[in-house]
Task: structure prediction
Amino acid sequence: MSDHKRQLTGLTLEELTALLESRSRALAALRWLYQVSPVPAALPERIPGVSPEAWANVRKACELSLPRTVMRRVSADGTLKYVFEAAGARFEAVLIPAEGRSTLCVSSQSGCTRHCAFCATARLGFGRNLHAGELVAQFLIAKGDAPAGSPLRNVVFMGMGEPFDNLDEVLRAIGILEQPPAPQLGASHITVSTSGVLPGMERFLRESESHLALSLNATTDAQRAELMPQTRQWPLAQLLELLRMSSAQSERLFFVEYVLLDGFNDSDDDARRLVALLKGVRARVNLIPHNGFEGCGYRPSRSERVLAFQRIVHESGIRCLLRSSRGDEIGAACGQLALRS
Ligand code: SF4
Result:
């Protein structure tokens, strides 16, 4: 990738309109980008709906060099895991086909700035932040692999990295994914998951309508500090107060992610504390089975504990779903993204 040229995948409609001196040409260029198959390795000399003279400006200022796919593996349940490489950084994405639509889990960083104890990515350390063009490119590549009856319509920022430590680029990528004429995902089809970076959460709630998922995983600060060290800076009470305030002011629904760990955070008392913490928050709890990896000191909760935990939360009136684990045999499941090839 050359330094002076920008990635076409990272341009907004407005920026493309300025380059092409016409909104209708910019719309034609975006239509082309999200329909062309396979995506060419370089910008062609002409594209439909744009005069070659106008397109020459784009070719001068931009390039189309998608990340290289280093590995691509399909699991028995159809989950597809990619390892990409761009400008010296490796990162992963996971395509999850389901009835009627597919979801892509994208990485926002190569490695991660945070150090969650239950997460394989944390062991890699931090590589670098990914640019918006690289975030959108993950969508562009995976789009072509979605099964015919299940087009790629959902994006979750739950791969490698803490999205709120790379928020400028994540917000730019969300804007691009939402813009017409393509990919034009609705805000409700995009979810950003955070380990609880409070300033980022505040900004995200001001600037984006997309879903926010809080990876909570604990019901006391001491427990959370062991799992997710940054909680010392932003304790549970502050994180949940923000969601409570937002719930009072809007119809926004928050996803609360909770990885169940055997004998650590899965007791009846934990479930009751979780219910108390979520009082006043418009929340849906997603219980996530822990996916093991070599050297991890935590084990997944036993199934009777998972069901008992779910029942307590559910009976309090909070919707509580048990997420199934997809792609764990290829290291594609939640918390397993660690560039294993
Ligand atoms: S759980 Fe998320 S924030 Fe925590 S180390 Fe893993 S990738 Fe980073």
Observations:
- Residues 236-249 form the longest helix (14 residues).
